[in-house]
Amino acid sequence: MSSSDSPQRGLPEPPPRPDSRPVALTGRVTDEKGMPFVGVTVIQEGTTNGCVTDADGNYRISVPVGASVSFSYIGYKTQRTHVGVQTRVDIRLEPSDISLETVVVTALGIKKAEKSLGYSLQQVNSDAFDKVKTDNPINALNGKVAGLTVNTRAGILEDPPIKLRGETPIYVINGTPVTYYRGVSSDDIESITVLKGPQAAVLYGSRGANGAILITTKTGDDIGEKTEITLNSSTMFTAGYLTLPEQQSIYGTGDFGQYSYLDGKGGGVYDGLWTWGPKLDQKDPTTPSGYFETVQYNSPIDPKTGKRIPTPFVSHKDNFRNFLQQGLTTSNNVSISHKFKEGSFRISLNQLYRRGQTPNTDLKRFGVNMAANYNITRKLHINASMIYNYTYSKNRPWSGYGNSHPYYNILVYMGANNDIRDLRNYWEEGQEGYAQRNWNHVWFNNPWFVAEEYTRPYSEPELIASASLDYDITDDLNFMVKAATDSKHQNQEECKPYAWVGNDRGLYSVGSDRRVDVNLDAMLSYKKRFGEFDLDAMLGVSLFNYQRNYLFSTTEGGLQQPDLYNLSNSQNTPSTTSKIERRRMAGAYGSVTLGYRDAFYLSFTGRNDWSSTLNKNNRSFFYPSVAFSALITEAVKLPKAVSFWKVRASWAKVGFDQSTVYMLQDTYSFNTYWDGNAAFTPPTTIIDPNIKPYFTSSFEVGTDLRFFGSRLRFDFSYYRTYDEGQIQKVDINQSSGYEEMLTNGNDYRREGYELMVGATPIKTKDWKWDISFNWFQTRKYLDKIYNGAYNYNNLKVGDRADALYESVWQRDPQGNFIVFENNGRPIEDPFKRVIGYAGADWEFGISSTLRYRNWSLSFDIAGRVGGVIRSDLNARMIEAGTHKLTAAPERELDWTKTPSYIPSNAVVVVDGDIEYDDHGNVLYDTRGYAPSTTPVYFKSWIGYMGKLNGPYTMGYNLFKGDFIKLRTMSVGYDFSDLLSGSRIFKGLELSVIGTNLLIWKKLDNEDPDAAYKNFSYPTERMIGFNLTLKL
């Protein structure tokens, strides 16, 4: 049979019934280039009679006349022939344009043909990770997976928040569920598969109710029978910042245009925390410098009078930039892979170093990754993998609002009259170790003092390991047992020195958090083809065991001696908190997939869990799923342009055990009163005795359509999910002795659309261009409120769950602010209103790779449209007077200390009235307005606009969340052709790489991809290189 004899589209005619006469069928199998094809499976369909082609592509098999023989290899189209009187059949296999034979990793590490899946998944291969490196490989998924939102985090050891279809998924590494995922080296990742929704992850139990992200590391299976050594090195430097907050540098420290330093404690003229002081760089011919002069913290002291001498009040721009240091990230990996007849192994060593943008901060990680498989006998196989990492930071940067953060000490409150470079000598002369040198001693720490003296050492050894034993009872029946563990031990210290503002005698604390998860599985699987039917069935049991030991101790009353960070150095008895948690969940599960003519697939799964943290009457819960897929191109003759068309549908119901350790038990809280007597406080929350798991029911439909030999690809999904009876706290009558009850409460509905488009517009001998686009929209709605209440946290039935109900100012129909006539203050709306939505209206990503001979150019773009961001940073900068909006000349009107500013967008009510119902709906509004003539302080007015925690005003403390970001770009050259004659070097590739290169946004001073309430560090633009060498 030649290549022109390949099967036509449509369902084939049934083969003739075989008779008992055997035929010795021989032949040769070649690939699309006519080269011998080794390893092709040749099998008599419906039996176990088969063979594989040898190194020359030859095969020999004895089969009855009339039998059907198939020729298959992963990634190629399966071909079949019906045996007649011929004794030789040559076959030419063509690549599968639509990857009909592609095998993907699904729940529990089970490998399935992608064509048989009735739900949506997306796989990202190693190409996305092996060039542009970060300390967290999940960042590489940003913009590449429809339905997946990955937020950027610039700080060290700050895991990016990840939402899959609006919820938090489970993370699985080599089949082992883990608590987080940052420890896997990018060079060791083979692929990341995103299983979307509970249909895909139901076999993980309630932990997989929101989908799963499966990380599969590399093995030695794909290199042939040889040894391969690979070295990879990547170095990236900070090349500026994607967004660096701007301070105004026109006005300095003080208030009402006045400032004079005395002691930094408020004893001078407005020498407190505000930057509403005099104008900077004012010319004054009466002073020695020619500029306005006043006493400042670094003014020299007159030896005769003992008083400070005034110095020029001039601006020092870029204080924040001058404080930050150039970041650096280096990553190195060396691996050895070997494959032999009975198995294979791969071992890699990896090292990562990151120098933080804040001085004296860093991250170091050393890791070992091992994977091996061995065929003990023809039927017995063992697989094992291990990832061990040791992460260490001599000083983990602090995140949050407070005087441990450089944003607080520099960006928000330090006026531009202070020069950050002058503060580098942070000890007062003669008082080293006991007194800071700073411009303020009540609220703020010297930023260099914080960087050098305040440390937060951190270390974490982590082990993720698994081992499985497979036994082929028959060619169709397999039994497998697997054990896996995820063990982490976090150790963190906090060392505050003497002279710390708020802890003048210092502080030391130490914490240990050890967690061990153990997963045990036993599984019986059966796969067999019966003529035109396929059966794939599985039964299994599992046991999940969780334990955590937490211990935290801190000094009380400060340290006895400075610079001695030990609990025994505590002034008073140290306080200690400890916690022990234990949890267990057992499960039994099964699945059945029926296939017909390689075109139709129907799958059923079911699982029952028993949870130790639920009450005994409700701790057992069962949940099923069903999925269907149909390959239209295998069933119906379509135009030649249509390469592949698959439709899919699925439904699942997953029990979500939201209970935590001790959640269902009344436990007392330990407290220590002022006199030191120990006391225990009873709980304020009562547990509903009938509480049970809440269930998530999800329905999904989708289609996968490809044209022109898969040169143009479309994949679309629609899903709708119902969360019934989520576990939550609800208010109850306090006469019961409790304030709240934990029970099954509200119902929610989620729905969304996902579109993935891929194309290969150019594909020639020298050129290839691949481009992909993904778009998705996710919505979550409140469907039902517990006990029929009108609202829940201001949300009403039918509202989007991410609706932000916040305080707002009242406005007239033209958008002007309605103010009180007597004082000019804006009037707050008596009801909270929707100011926008926390989530985007939709998100998108674009990835492109262009190759010309040995050159390659790749880039990734991602963005979001819609949504709003409440910005604490901008609000606090406006309040402090450092925001650029506060540099308006109208601020000088306040210097008279008499309200003199009349806002042009303020009105007063001159007649009429407004009436609301109990829920804030306007019953009538007959108000008339006139421009306000009441003067106010400019500082007060702009403070109203940018008020912390609202009321919210767009452009001040509230911003649109839209952005488009050029996330990554790489330009590379593959030198492997130049090494073709080398016996040592097998491959060499060098790439220039960059991350976070450009952004368009509407949020002021922050990266909308990284912004969150307690200040985010500025997003660094990183540029560097990546080198890969194969031996």
UniProtKB/TrEMBL annotation:
Region span, Disordered: 1-24
InterPro entries: Beta-barrel_TonB_sf, CarboxyPept-like_regulatory, Plug_dom, Plug_dom_sf, TonB-dep_OMP_SusC/RagA, TonB-dep_OMP_SusC/RagA_CS, TonB-dep_rcpt-like
Keyword Transmembrane: yes
Keyword terms: Cell outer membrane, Membrane, Transmembrane, Transmembrane beta strand, Transport
Subcellular location: Cell outer membrane
Entry membrane topology: Multi-pass membrane protein
GO cellular component: cell outer membrane
One Pfam family linked to the record: Plug
Residues in TonB-dependent receptor plug domain copies: 116-212
Keyword Transmembrane in record: yes
Superkingdom of origin: Bacteria
Family: Belongs to the TonB-dependent receptor family.
Protein name: SusC/RagA family TonB-linked outer membrane protein
Lineage: Bacteria, Pseudomonadati, Bacteroidota, Bacteroidia, Bacteroidales
